Amino acid sequence: MSETAIAKKQELVTLATEKVKESSSVVVVDYLGLTVGEVTELRKQLRDAGCEMHVLKNSIISRAVTAAGLEGMDDVFKGPTAVAFSKDDVVAPAKIIAEFAKTAPNLEIKGGIVEGNVSSVEEIEALAKLPNREGMLSMLLSVLQAPVRNLALAVKAVSEKDAA
């Protein structure tokens, strides 16, 4: 192998390592059997959610994950591999891929990385069932507003009782 080919592969490993390190979640999938149209649609949905998907050689992504200090993913990097990266929303790639897999049964989640920890297929699928960031913030806001709302209702009830 020529020195330029080795240098290019090393550069790809370096770029992939940076992606893995800066991502809050990484989902690895087997995309074999998807049509070009399906892959394009999946990429579009991921891009719209602020994620990106790359098809990488197993040797490149395996070295990148090892360079990022993660272990236990050797079984994941077998066969055709596409990797979805998300910097901000931990749930987005898992949710989009799991939802897309319902209409494209050839799309299969192989594993992933969540907040710097290696995750199994089951953990990624459980993550996909969680609400997205906006949904979680909405739930939190509801919980925070409940005591104030209840107090306001109690004050209103007391004032109406006194007025009667």
UniProtKB/TrEMBL annotation:
GO terms for biological process: translation. HAMAP family: Ribosomal_uL10. Pfam families: Ribosomal_L10. GO terms for cellular component: ribonucleoprotein complex; ribosome. It comes from the Bacteria. The keyword Ribosomal protein applies. Keywords: Ribonucleoprotein, Ribosomal protein, RNA-binding, rRNA-binding. This is Large ribosomal subunit protein uL10.
